[in-house]
Write a structure and sequence with these properties.
Rossmann fold; 2 domains; globular; 16 helices; 7-stranded parallel β-sheet; alpha/beta; about 475 residues
Length: about 475
């Protein structure tokens, strides 16, 4: 059973926030809250359990982040390895986005924001958790790893947030999310935010959020009103690739969605070969490569990003002009979340779904479920309706020029990386190790030619091998052998 919210806040200054937090928001040009923030602030600041639902791009991150930081700042303190607030997110990219949004607001309040997720050094994350007053942003898998190492405890958590709860359930994280919330004090505040609150989310709410306040700005099918929707149909797959290439050739920033990792890599390569530089982003890439692709797209180095649904939620890049469903998603929620990467924070945007004749029935069903009344139109790549969507075309870039630009960017990254030797030689490795008792130790730097951390010193000739019982003998060629 849910409860009605308090009257909405009209401004950050009048909401009862700490002055340092209001000033930090003002420095970012934020003086008036978005609708979801205005509605959520009074109850969240009062310590109520809260359900927040609003369309993608409505400002949900600050909707929970601002009250979390304000409540912690009102009561300073904290112990090492015992975070005071926990934000659970489904993906690495979303963890990074939440951290980027909240870290500048946490610093003036003497709060430390730590994000933990897979694909990066767990040793560094363990070290960061030794500070007091930590707000922990975590993906479920990495948080479980840290708990099993006794590197973090959740018994001091005052507020727990589950962000994108429905997506968390869709990815199969519901059991581990329940396990993690059961480790949080029962009387801790719980905030659950998502673009949709359906499916298994209801069971999560009943178990962990008794009598929450419901802040719902949109219906369950939350169509973004300032989106312009189009559906184009190519005659076959080859024509579809040519059509997608034209759509990606505009001067603006374009995000294309592919259904598979292989498809994203292939399409990014095809676009680049056709003179439209593009980067790929998907879960099969190393974290460093994912970060590079997203950064190059964010800073405008690359205008076109081809992504799987890993980018459908949590990837906030300003001024994305066009979203193209190069592969139509399977269900309408994915369509809405993908499309919501544009038209964020009240801006306008355009979404195009590209399909072939054999997909027509499924696409029509998808668009109806998403709340649009459009139907696929048969077009060619040079159709004026397509060119009207794309706008002025960008000049083609040769592969040689793309490779030269990539070399310059790599050199700039190397120059900006602390500790990298300017001679071009590979710097010495650091190694990190966590003992079984959970204590983290960092070794000194060693060149690559030396043994890695934890390697045993060579046993002398004649020593008995501890497992096989064989006797070690020395060979004249410098090698060794075991003899029974």
């Amino acid at each position: 059973m849910t409860r009605e919210p308090r009257p909405a806040a009209t401004s950050f200054a009048d909401a009862g926030l700490p002055k340092a937090l209001v000033d930090a928001l003002a420095r970012q040009g934020k003086t008036a809250p978005f609708a979801i923030q205005s509605a959520a602030l009074p109850d969240a600041l009062a310590g109520e359990n809260l359900l927040g639902r609003a369309h993608t791009g409505a400002g949900k991150t600050l909707g929970f982040g601002i009250p979390v930081l304000a409540r912690l700042a009102a009561k300073p303190g904290g112990r090492a390895k015992h975070p005071r607030a926990l934000v659970l997110v489904p993906t690495r990219e979303l963890a990074q986005q939440v951290s980027d949004a909240l870290a500048p607001l946490a610093r003036p309040l003497d709060l430390h924001l730590v994000s933990v997720y897979g694909g990066t050094s767990i040793g560094k994350q363990i070290s960061n958790l030794t500070r007091p007053g930590v707000v922990l942003v975590a993906t479920p898998g990495r948080l479980v790893d840290l708990l099993e190492r006794n590197a973090v405890m959740l018994d001091d958590v005052e507020t727990a947030v589950v962000d994108e709860a429905d997506h968390m359930c869709d990815l199969g994280f519901l059991p581990v999310v329940k396990r993690l919330l059961s480790l949080v004090p029962a009387d801790a505040q719980k905030l659950l935010f998502s673009a949709t609150l359906d499916g298994q989310v209801d069971g999560l709410v009943r178990q962990f959020l008794p009598e929450p306040v419901l802040v719902a700005l949109d219906p369950e099918v939350g169509q973004v009103v300032n989106l312009e929707h189009h559906a184009f149909e190519a005659k076959d797959r080859n024509a579809k690739v040519a059509l997608v290439t034209t759509l990606a050739s505009g001067l603006g920033r374009t995000l294309l969605f592919s259904r598979t990792k292989h498809g994203a890599d292939r399409l990014a390569k095809q676009l680049s070969n056709d003179g439209v530089p593009a980067a790929a982003l998907h879960g099969g890439m190393a974290q460093a490569a994912r970060t590079r692709s997203l950064k190059s797209f964010s800073d405008g180095t690359t205008r076109v990003l081809v992504a799987t649904d890993v980018a459908a939620r949590g990837v906030h890049v300003d001024n994305i002009d066009l979203v193209v469903h190069a592969d139509p998603p399977e269900e309408h929620k994915a369509y809405l979340h993908r499309s919501g990467r544009t038209a964020r924070a009240g801006q306008a945007g355009t979404v195009v779904t590209v399909s072939t004749p054999e997909q027509r029935r499924d696409v029509e069903r998808l668009l109806r479920a998403a709340g649009t009344d459009i139907r696929p139109l048969g077009v060619t790549p040079d159709d004026q309706r397509v060119l009207d969507v794309v706008g002025p075309l960008s000049p083609k870039v040769s592969i040689a020029d793309q490779q030269e630009a990539a070399r310059r960017n790599a050199a700039a990254r190397a120059a900006a990386t602390p500790g990298r030797e300017r001679s071009g030689r590979t710097p010495a490795r650091r190694f990190d190790r966590t003992d079984r008792d959970g204590r983290h130790r960092t070794g000194a730097e060693r060149p690559r030619t030396e043994s890695v951390a934890g390697a045993r010193a060579p046993r002398p000739a004649g020593a008995v091998h501890p497992r096989t019982g064989g006797v070690r003998t020395r060979r004249t060629d410098g090698g060794h052998a075991h003899q029974s």
